Amino acid sequence: MLMQTHEARLAALREELKRRGLDGFVVPISDEHMSEYIGGYAQRLAWLTGFGGSAGSAAVLKDRAAMFVDGRYTIQVREQVDGKLYDYCQVPQESIGKWLAANAPEGAKIGFDPWLHTKGWADQVGKALAKKGGELIAVESNPVDAVWADQPEPSTAAALVHADEHAGRSSAEKRAEVADWLKAEGYDAAVVSALDSIAWLLNIRGADVERTPVALSYLIAHSDGTADLFIAPEKVTPELEKHLGNAVTIRPRSEFESALGAMEGKTVSVDPDYGVAAIFRVLEDAGAKPVAERDPAILPKAIKNPVEQQGHRNAQERDGAAVARFLHWLSVEAPKGGETELSAAARLQEFRLATGALKDNSFDTISAAGPHAAIPHYRVDEESNLPIEPGSVFLCDSGGQYLDGTTDITRTVWIGPGEPSAEQKDRFTRVLKGHIAIDRATFPQGTNGSQLDAFARQFLWQAGVDYGHGTGHGVGSYLGVHEGPQRIAKASGGQAGTGQELHAGMILSNEPGYYKGGEYGIRIENLILTVTRDIPGGEGDWLGFETLTFVPIDRTLVDRSLLTDEEIAWWNAYHAKTRAILAPQLEGEALAWLEEACRPL
Questions:
Q1: How many CB atoms within 10 Å of residue 237?
Q2: 597: left (phi over 0), alpha (psi -120 to 50) or beta
Q3: What pLDDT shows up at residue 2?
């Protein structure tokens, strides 16, 4: 019989830990590749606790347990995880290491799965436990798997060739670049374990993880330009073998650990953020020298080549027309009442599918009515589904995966009848002003994302308000919708990517927001491409942004008196271009709606 309650699952895990002589265990949302989105087989935290967010961990002791999430999930964790079973802890203020040191018995043996955590995490938590005479123990097999009776198998979907016409560069060319880097740095090989890096380096894609088109695999890239790909045999097709050629040896995924064990005497680069603790341990035990160094595919993957850039513009045009059709539909149907968060998300999906080119969504659509719009990472389900009330704010953040590009767009709209409040218009217009400031920014080469972040916040700060998320993240090319290393965010809390200098070719989101808990939320998001700027008389190299997303922004929520002449000029130019791109793709009432939405402010 399957154990249905989360209480029963927690009890079963505690029994298993007792059987293994462990006093506790840490369960993260993670897979062996430290992916943001993970396959069903790796959803151990969701199975154990009921938590559905994309970042978090649980620490389980004999008589206590705690959930650790960041500020994005403060509300969600309380809705989904039983407070009688788990304490709620917010990171980074509270850490797993400190909590375990405070709550575990003296000399406790705490287990962790070394394939699901980084070496840095294990070192930190191990140190915290050692102060209490405790020990962090790497388990041979995951105890959650031992009690999860109906755990799904990893996906067996075939790996797919990503054609050079979309990739813009051959895999051989990319591998040669990595080989040059390895030789220059004095490394024999690099372990590449991030799934999107493998996909980019080999020009392959897959269907193993929801929302991100990657194939479960590992790669060892060698300094002579050859590589070993470790992938389940059932995922390999004749097309894949032909595409990879003789320089890439295809081996069963199950041989990865033994291949690491055969690298005695070699100096091997391993990414500290994506290479799990087990990889470092196996290499060290084998007599190899692992060096913590950023995955060599990460930066070149982020700098899109001209083919990827144009593909992205094409994907945006197609996606923009689908979103415009949705916004027209919403403007007609939502004011009548009867629509819900789920019905709106389903309708948007139909418009995207009608393009004939959609491969998947790039993330779960955030369809957020009224108070739910104040939860930045809200995810609607049957239980949380709210009606879209006439006379309210509705926020929709969504994206599509297309062969030529990955999209991500947020629009916040007023659902009539009636007028938004003065406060709602004020906050929306301040968010808009910040969005325009990022879009129009000009900055010297060498600037990083944290140096631009306040451009977006300044007008909200003037009103004594702010938002609790970053302003922009990198975006992949038919890959992850959240892609490093670049981002635009406050330079605090050791956030990855804020110190990364921006380069021409990098794609970012531009998404300032404002959230009034329990009432409404606002976010305006376009994607932007970093480009070179030629400034007459300027000294040195300068950069700026090209707007990639063209969909009308809701004028009902704008307080025109708060905008400068330059901002009004930006609005009018943006909507003139939006009309030029979308009008040829629309007809009838949707076209009439577009014409009205794009008229000058």
A1: 13
A2: alpha
A3: 46
Residue 76 has pLDDT above 90, yes or no: no
Closest by alpha carbon to 175, among 232, 246, 257, 231?
A: 246
Q: Confidence class of residue 79 from pLDDT cuts 50, 70 and 90? A: confident
Buried/exposed 525-540: b ≥16 CB within 10 Å, e otherwise: bbbbbbeebeeeeeee
The model's confidence at residue 53, banded by pLDDT at 50, 70 and 90, is confident
Nearest residue to 239 (alpha-carbon basis) of 306, 164, 308, 158:
158
Which residue has 């957020």 as its token pair? 368
C-beta of residue 510 within 8 angstroms of C-beta of residue 525: yes
Average pLDDT for the chain: 96
- Non-local (6+) Cβ contacts of 424 within 8 A are 393, 414, 520, 522, 557
Q: How far apart are CA 403 and CA 295, in angstroms?
A: 24
Is residue 134 predicted with pLDDT exceeding 60?
yes
Q: Cα–Cα distance between 87 and 60 in angstroms, integer? A: 10
The amino acid at residue 317 is: E
**What value does the mean pLDDT take over residues 540-551?**
98
Q: How many CB atoms lie within 10 A of CB 143?
A: 23
- The rounded distance, in Å, linking the Cα atoms of 51 and 69 is 10
Instruction: Tell me what the mean pLDDT of segment 236-254 comes to.
Output: 98
pLDDT digit string (tens) for 310-350? 999 999 999 999 999 999 999 999 999 999 999 999 999 99
* SS3 state at 68: strand
Take residue 486 and report the two structure tokens written for it. 């670049």
Contacts for 165 with CB less than 8 Å, ≥ 6 apart: 307
Helices (H), 162-275: 164-167, 171-185, 195-202, 238-244, 256-260
Exposure string (b/e) for 468-507, b if CB count within 10 Å is 16 or more?
ebbbbbbbbbbbbbbbbbbbbbbeeeeeebbebebbbbbb
* Cβ-based neighbours of 344, under 8 Å, separated by 6 or more: 326, 330, 334, 367, 388, 394, 396
Q: pTM to 2 decimals? A: 0.95
Write the pLDDT tens digit of every residue in 528-539. 999 999 999 999
3-state SS of 315-368 is: HHHHHHHHHHHHHHHHHHHHHHCCCEHHHHHHHHHHHHHCCCCCCEECCCCEEE
H-assigned helices in 482-601: 565-582, 588-597
Tell me the Cα Rg of the chain: 25
* C-alpha dist (Å) from residue 361 to 108, 365, 400: 44, 8, 4
Secondary structure (DSSP) of 99-147: HHHHHSPTT-EEEE-TTSSBHHHHHHHHHHHHTTT-EEEE-SS-HHHHH
Q: Please enumerate in sequence order all residues whose Cβ is within 8 A of that of 587, keeping only pairs 6 or more positions apart, or say none.
A: none
Place of tokens 């010297």: 444
- Residues facing residue 516 across a β-bridge: 520
Residue 452: in which H helix or E strand, if any?
A: helix 449-462
| 599 Cβ contact list (under 8 Å, min separation 6) | 575
